[in-house]
Write a structure and sequence with these properties.
Elements lengths: L6 E5 L4 H12 L3 E6 L2 H9 L7 E5 L5 H15 L4 E4 L15 H29 L2 E6 L12 H21 L4 E8 L18 H9 L8 H12 L10 E4 L7
Parallel strand pairs: 1-2, 1-4, 2-3, 4-5, 5-6, 6-7
């Protein structure tokens, strides 16, 4: 029970990697808060944990700073603490190049992927500082290192998430707060499922996945295992690191 007595908040928890993180944390003793833009999706994640689950479902738009403050305030009011924050919510840009990226698409992708991580971290930091301990885990991407994993907005946003992670670690490590990033490769989730269909197949992605040492898509549970490690005291000496969970995509 590596997270016994702790409170963990996961954004984008209605499906995919976020849902898997909630399940993993709950199994290890945490009280879990599933945050999703859809209340019904967040509630389904909590309901599936069982009738006596230690959990709460909250709806929020992570790109809205007021929503971030509201969610964190409600968590602290109800549970008295906040130990783990997983900024996992994200959106794709369908490999849109810069010339084809509209201002609306740019603002949405940057707002959710980077703005969400910033707003929720900023909201959670005062409580974590007061506790003298906390773990922030940001879902970045292999697109934080290389081009081709997304379009212009997505790649820029994930580079930004990694930079934010490092700065959080630098500024708040002295307060007992650890900030680290997970950089998934091709993970089979609801958000990426269309890439596995003939209609949505992307030759670049197919070739990249086939060329990895793993030779396959990853699962949400494989990301959740890394999140559990970073949330636990097993990672007590890890600050500002980026962990690729990508089947070896970025090895070359």
């Amino acid at each position: 029970m590596k997270l016994d007595g702790r409170v963990a908040v996961v954004t984008g928890a209605g499906s995919g990697m976020g849902r898997a993180m909630i399940e993993e944390f709950h199994a290890e003793g945490a009280t879990v808060v599933a945050v999703d833009i859809r209340q019904d999706a967040a509630q389904a994640t909590i309901d599936d944990l069982g009738g006596n689950s230690r959990g709460l479902a909250l709806a929020a738009d992570v790109s809205d700073e007021a929503d971030a403050e509201r969610v964190v305030g409600e968590v602290v009011s109800q549970f008295g603490r906040l130990d783990v924050l997983c900024n996992n919510a994200g959106v794709l840009d369908d490999y849109t190049t810069a010339l084809d990226t509209t201002t609306e698409l740019w603002n949405r992708v940057i707002g959710v992927n980077l703005g969400g991580a910033f707003f929720f971290s900023r909201a959670a930091l005062p409580q974590m500082i007061s506790q003298g301990k906390g773990a922030i885990i940001n879902t970045a991407s292999i697109s934080a290192f290389v081009a081709g994993g997304g379009g212009a907005a997505y790649t820029a946003s994930k580079h930004g998430v990694l930079g934010l992670t490092k700065q959080l670690a630098f500024d708040y490590g002295k307060h007992g707060i650890r900030a680290n990033a997970i950089c998934p490769g091709a993970i089979h989730t609801g958000m990426t499922g269309h890439l596995l269909t003939p209609e949505g197949a992307n030759p670049h992605v197919d070739a990249a996945v086939a060329a990895t040492p793993a030779g396959r898509w990853g699962t949400p549970q494989e990301i959740a295992h890394m999140a559990l490690f970073l949330a636990s005291d097993d990672a007590a000496f890890i600050h500002g690191a980026a962990f690729t969970v990508d089947g070896g995509w970025v090895l070359p």
